[in-house]
Write a structure and sequence with these properties.
The structure is a homodimer of 201-residue chains. Chain A is of the alpha/beta class. Chain A contains 10 helices and 5 strands, in the order βαβαβαβαβαααααα. In chain A, helix 4 packs across helix 6, helix 7 packs across helix 8 and helix 7 crosses helix 9.
C-alpha cells in the first residue's frame, strides 16, 4: 500500500480527496493536516511515502512545506496540488523539490496516477504550464518587493505600509516603484494583479 | 435514493465530492456539470432531488443558477457550497431560494447531513454567518457601481474603464467615488477589497 499524507486547509475538500483516493486499491491516506507547519511532523509520525500538498494553506504554503520536507525527508515523494495553475507556482514547486504539480481542474484520475508515477521515479507536470514557466523566466521581484506588494494589495496607503512593515514611507515608495517598473505595470493595483497571475507574489 | 446534481468547475474537487457522497448509502450523484448555465438542463434531464451548487463557476455563478432553478423547478432543493463564507454570498443565496449554504471549510459529514435536512424541509445555514449577514445589511452598491468596481480591480485606469464599459470617464469617476464613499474606503483598491470580503462584488 502507498501511504499518503494529505495537506489541504479546506476540510470538506480534504476529506473528499481522501474519499477519492480511498477508492484506489493500492493507496491509503494515513494522515491529514490543514496547515503547512504541521506537514513535517505528520510525515515523520506516519511513515509516509507521498505527501500531497495544497499550495494555499495557513501556517506556510505547500511550496514552503515541500522545501522543508525535501530537506528533512529526501526519500519522500512530493505532489503539489493547486487551484491556480500559475507558472510561478510551478517554478517555485519544482525549485522546492516537488516531484509532481497538479491543478484541481485536472481529471480526478490524474491524482492517483501522479502518486503512482512519482513513486516510480517520474516527474509529473503539465507540459503547457512548464513551457509557460520556462518562457516567462524567474520571478524578478525581491523578497522585500513581494512583501510590500502583497501588503499593498488591500488598498493600504504608503503611510500604512510603512507602519506595518517598519520601513520609512520613502523606502516603501521605492520598493513599489521598482516592482511596478519590473512588472511593466501602470500602477500598484496592476502590479499586484500581474504578479498574482504569474504566481510571483 | 436521494438523487443529487453536482455543479462545480474544478474537476478534481467535483469528482472528489462525488466520491465522498458515493460513500453514503442513501445518496446517489446522478449528474455532474462544470458551468452555471448547464445546471437547469442537467436537473431536468436527470430527475434530481437536490442540486449542490458551487458559487464560483464560469457561465454564471451558483447563486444565479439557484435563482433559475428556484423559478423553473420549485420542488428541487438547493444547497449552495462555497470556498468563501462571505455574508453577501449567504444573503444572495438565500434571496435566490437556496435551502442550505455550506462552506468548504466545514467537516465533510456536514454535506450529506445538509442534503438530508433540506429534503426534510429544513434550512441549513451557519448561525454565525447568518448573524453577520443580517447585521451587515444589504449590499449598498448598485449594479453599475459593482460593474465599475469589478472592472477597476485589475488596475485599469479611468480611461480604460470608460472604454471597456462604454461610459464617459466622468461617469466612471462618479460611480467609483460613490462606491468608495458607500464602503467608507480610502481609495478604489480598498473599496474593491471591502466589497469582495463582504461578498458584494
Amino acid at each position: 500500500m502507498i501511504r499518503v499524507l494529505l495537506a489541504e486547509d479546506q476540510a470538506m475538500v480534504r476529506e473528499a480527496l481522501a474519499a477519492l483516493l480511498g477508492l484506489e486499491p493500492d493507496i491509503e491516506v494515513v494522515a491529514q493536516v490543514a496547515r503547512g507547519d504541521e506537514v513535517l511532523a505528520a510525515a515523520r509520525a506516519h511513515d509516509v511515502d507521498v505527501a500531497l500538498l495544497d499550495i494555499e494553506m495557513p501556517g506556510g504554503t505547500g511550496i514552503e512545506a515541500a522545501a522543508v520536507l525535501h530537506g528533512e525527508l529526501p526519500d519522500l515523494k512530493l505532489v503539489v496540488l493547486t487551484t491556480f495553475g500559475r507558472p510561478g507556482y510551478l517554478r517555485g514547486a519544482m525549485e522546492s523539490g516537488a516531484d509532481a504539480f497538479l491543478v484541481k481542474d485536472a481529471q480526478a484520475a490524474r491524482l492517483a496516477e501522479a502518486i503512482r508515477r512519482v513513486l516510480a521515479g517520474e516527474r509529473v507536470i503539465d507540459p503547457a504550464l512548464a513551457a509557460a514557466a520556462l518562457a516567462e523566466g524567474a520571478n524578478p521581484l525581491t523578497d522585500r518587493e513581494r512583501e510590500v506588494l502583497r501588503a499593498a494589495a488591500d488598498g493600504s496607503t504608503n503611510a500604512d505600509l510603512a507602519a506595518t512593515l517598519h520601513l520609512s514611507p520613502g523606502t516603501v515608495r521605492n520598493y513599489l516603484s521598482t516592482a511596478i517598473q519590473k512588472l511593466a505595470a501602470r500602477n500598484r493595483t496592476e502590479a499586484v494583479r500581474i504578479a498574482r497571475d504569474k504566481g510571483w507574489l
